[in-house]
Every structure is written in C-alpha cells, then in structure tokens.
Amino acid sequence: MNKMEINETLDLKGVPCPQNSARTLIKLAGMDKGEILQVILDDGEPIENVPPSIEDEDEYKIVSTEQNSDGSWRLVIRVERS
Amino acid sequence: MEIYLDNNATTKVDPSVIDVIISYLRENYGNASSIHKSGVRSSIAVEKARKIIADKIGCLCSEIYFTSGGTESNNFAIKGVANTLGLKSGKNHIITSSIEHPSILEVCRYLQTVGYKVTYIPVDKNGFVNIEEIAKNINENTFIVSIMHANNEIGTIEPLEEIGKICRKRKVLFHTDACQSFTKTLLDVNKHNIDLATLNSHKVHGPKGIGALYIRKGVRVTPLLNGGGQESDMRPGTYNTPLIAGFGKAVEIASENDSKKIASLRDYFIDKIICKNNGIVLNGPTGDERLCNNINILVKNLSGKKLFRELNKRNIFISTGSACSSTVLTPSHVLLSIGCSEEESHSSVRISLSKWTTKEELEITVNAIEEISKSS
Q: Is the ipTM here above 0.90?
C-alpha cells in the first residue's frame, strides 16, 4: 500500500462535516481515471461521515483507511470512472 | 426600450447565474451543514463557489468567509480587527481615505464615538490617495489601513500594491474594499500585500445579499455574530446555498475580455460626450487608472437632478452621485474630496456600463444629454 503512487493529497484536519465530504468530492471530480487521492481526516465524525459519502458515488473506490499516530485518519481513494 | 446605465449601483443577474440559483432553491435545497446526501450536494455547491472566488484573488479556500454583502464584510473587517485587539491594547488608530464607501466611513465614525482615532487621508483631483500621507500617519497605535480598490463614484483605481508594501513594512494590517473592482481589474492578495478584502456579488451580475470577506491566514478577527458554527465560527448562520452558488457562477463567467470591451465603450462615450459638449468635464482619471465601467461627468450649468429626471423620462437610467446617497440631497463626499464645489457636485452624474451595454445605447444617451443640455 505504501508503494502506491499518490497523485493528490487533501489535508482536511479541522474541516467540519459535510464540508470535508464536499471538498473531497470536488477534488475527485477534477482527477483522472486511475488516479489516487489521499485524504487526511480527523477522528470521530469526519472518519465516520466522509467514507460513506465517497462510497455513494460509483466512480470512486476507497482503497485503504489507516489511522495515523496522531489519531487522524488517512483515506486513500482511487478514481474508477470509465 | 430601457437603457440601464447604473451598473456601479447594481447589475442585472446573468441568466446562467439565475439557473444555478433556481436549481438550489428548487431541487438541491438541503442545508449545506447537514451530513445526508442532500446536504453534501449543497455543501459541494458552497465549496465550489469558495474555490472559484479564492482562485480569482489568489488565496486559500479557507481564507474566504461568506457574508451578506459588502456592507457586512466592511463592518466585519474593521470592527472585527478592532474588537480582537481591544482599546486596552493601545491599538486605537485607523487610517482610511476621505472617499471610502459609507460602509467604511460610518464604521469609522462609530468607532470614533467609542474611543478610536481615525485619520482620513485626502485624495488628489483624480481621487488618488496620498501615499506619503498614509506612511506619515502610521504610528505605533495604528492597527489597520483601509483603502478601497476602486471608487464607486469616480472609478479611481487606487495603487494597492504600493500601499500594501508600506503596511507590510510598518506591520499594520491592510484592508481593501474591492466591491466595485472585483473581477473587473486584477486583485491579487499576495501581489498587493492585502490582509483583508471585501468582495461582493451583485456588481458582477450575481445576486444581491451575498458577499465575502477574505481574511489572510493568521489575521485575528472577532466575529460579528455568534451562532451555529458555520464558516469556522467566523460567520455563523445557515448557508445561503442558492446565493453562494450564484455568486460563484457570476465570478466564474466574469471575463477579462468583457472588461476590455466595456473599457473601450467607456472611452468611446467619454470622447464623444466631451467632444460634443464644451460644458462637460470628466470627473476622475482616464484609461487603466479608471474602473472599466465607470463614467462620471460634470455638466456645467445643469443640475444633475434635472439631467437624471430628463433621462429617466426617456427610460435612460443613470445616477446622481452614489446610489447609496441618491435619496439625499447632499453633495457627494467623493466629489467634494477631489475639489469640486457643492454646485459642481450637484451638476455631476454617474453613468456606469455593463457587459451588455451597446454602442447604440451610448449614442442614444450622448444625444439625449446634448439635447437636454441645450434646452435648459
């Protein structure tokens, strides 16, 4: 997983819901098929709310979800659209 | 046929902006703070608009705060910084210009009543602020300099970059009211060393009742309102998604080409009206130093009110002085500041163009002014 090439990173620590979902989806909409977005999210509501918003869209796939040592989360999303 | 030439007061909303607004009233009406799909859709609209506006002035999305418009943004900037520091800090001095919009001047006057000191920098005959006077008047108590980007009455585009450099060097915050200039002439918060900037929507074919304040990261501003946490607690209140989305669309479609075309029509009108009438003088600067859509003329020996009424009868809509003061028969503070007498001020009118103004409309207006001027 660490070897996966990350094309873009969005640090959304401190950004409330659903602004974090909105900003993730806007970013993904501007990316090409196969590209990878890494999103850093706060623990709690953000990590509970953002992944379902991404999964609602067929064109994006959450590849991994890992917690960082500071408690924040690293979400890796791939653009799947045809 | 109506000829609308009062675009410094407000503009007609672009049809594509109306479509966006309607879609967020009719279909995508979710609260942009709700976490269900409908709320996320609205939040996407808000964040897209924020990105468009941030990109336009070269700042981060997190530095844009939506407000109800220019007046609120100006109040937010000046009172917000003053309240953060507090009079007890000794930072009690504001520098502004004598030709600001009332939403800056009245805030300053209010702050004077509670103990602040304000220096009003004079302007020259074309409305340019005296930069040396700004530098000379900054003292250890000065906490903010507020100078508008483009004047709403005579179109003067102030030298923000130079003023910004002085403020940065002297460690004083720099605010600009960019309501008239936004999207019409370059506003780059980094190049111009701006810490706070007031932006609004309805001067650029967007809806009324929505605006924004740019606040540079790290600048502390106390919110005017307290509430439900929106806009990072800086400006709470339910997101006005339709108007925010409309504002974003208006900024997105604003083009440099439109500004160039308008400037060329402005110069056509100025040349033609001055050439045809010996008694007409342009108030304010010319060329790139003037807002692309602004014309302000002094029609000697004719009252501005009379010219306004006669043009109004012919369905040509202009303004006497600024829109905000057009119900009051006091001379324009801007025209007095550039050296006009009270009589000259009362004989001046503002004609302001839009991307839809045509050469034909301007020809009709020039001829009408000539006819009214001759018959009086």
A: no
Number of continuous H segments (helices) and E segments (strands) in chain A: 2, 4
Using the Cβ of B141 and the Cβ atoms of chain A, whether some distance falls under 8 Å is answered with: no
Separation between Cα atoms, residue B106 and residue B100, nearest integer Å: 10
A-chain residues near B47 (CB < 8 A): 19, 22-23, 26
Closest CA to B42 of B27, B32, B56: B32
Name the residue of chain A whose CA is nearest to B30's CA.
A18
What is the torsion angle, in degrees rounded to the nearest 10, for the CA atoms of residue B105, residue B111, residue B116 and residue B120?
Answer: 0
Q: Looking at beta carbons, which residues of chain B come within 8 Å of A45?
A: 35
Q: For A8-79, CATH number?
A: 3.30.110.40
Annotated catalytic sites of B, by residue? Answer: 324
In terms of Cα–Cα distance, which of B263, B261, B354 is closest to B14?
B354
Q: Structural domains in chain B?
A: 3-11+255-375 (3.90.1150.10), 15-253 (3.40.640.10)
Length of chain B: 376
Q: How confident is the model at residue B278 (pLDDT cuts 50, 70, 90)?
A: confident
Q: How many CB pairs under 8 A join A and B?
A: 36
